[in-house]
Amino acid sequence: MFDYILRRLLIMIPTILGITVVVFIIINLAPGSPVEQQIQQLRFSGMGDAGGGAGDAAVTQEVIDALKAQYGFDKPMHIRYIIWLKNLFALDFGLSFTYEEPALEIIVSKFPVSLQFGIISLILSYLICIPLGIIKAIRHGSAFDLATSAILSALYAVPGFMLGLLLLVFFASGQFFEWFPLGGMISDDYENFTFFEKVGDRVWHFVLPLAAYMVSQFTVLTILMKNSLLEEIKKDYVRTARAKGLSEKKVYFKHAVRNALIPIVTGLGSLLTIFFAGSLLIETIFELDGIGRMSFRAVLERDYNVLMASIFIQSVLMLFGNLISDIAYVVVDPRIDFS
After folding, report:
1. pTM
2. DSSP-derived secondary structure letter, 192
3. Domains and CATH numbers, the chain
4. Model confidence over 191-202: pLDDT tens digits?
5. Alpha helices of 274-332 — where are they, by DSSP H?
6. Helix (H, G, I), strand (E, B), or coil: what is residue 159?
7. Average model confidence (pLDDT) across the chain
8. What are phi and psi of 95, to 5 degrees?
């Protein structure tokens, strides 16, 4: 197992380099670089001051060259990539063109929103979906199974952002009910609350956006657990266990469930990517300042350093997450051998 982990770690190096090369090229070839945006702003302001063509004359070649030097675009693309790669070893992703602060600090500042929703949704999904999937498999074809399947299918058909809008209209707008706030993470007078009041306030603000975050993941995980267990029940070792006179409880929970969990553990790799859990539409609807809105703004404003830092960190977390999933396979089923 150690040799396998070492091989995977070594393979990650060229994989990450390949990802960064492709992304760097695509980002830098896309029209609308920071230099071009600054030139447009100067021309627009010049036209506003002079009332006409004076704007174009105001942006001289010296100004353009100074802007290129400021943003590092005075060098060829491959040189800029080598410089970026060199700075990467010091975890220096450069300054954000939009915020004029270190790109890494900008990303880390958005972690709290994404991290809170990511952790809570992951925990609740596994705590609820796995038992629910087991019960549905045991009671396959019953009224309970059919009813919950209908509800889960309906939830899966509703996009998260649409569910968020409906929840706001029905439970926060005051048109029907006003049980929850319209958005944000905390109340205006949050700092004056006691500890337990702060916890309650955060939970109060979490309920609606968390439901919108979880809706599709909740359905998929439940159905996956149910179908996985149903497949295990049909196998010979389960029939043998029943033939030996074991109770249904032991047949299910001692034998079938453990093997049925093997496909589920693939989700354990997402433990690392919860740092970047985010949805632009949901964050916009609920006025949350998270990774989704940050990434969208970085794309619109061509904030290359923030984009590269974000993609690099996500790629590393994803690769390590896949490795964790493979290790979890072995923990759940020792028969699996990656050597």
Report:
1. 0.73
2. G
3. 12-106 (no CATH), 111-289 (1.10.3720.10)
4. 888 888 888 888
5. 280-285, 291-300, 304-332
6. coil
7. 80
8. -90, 145
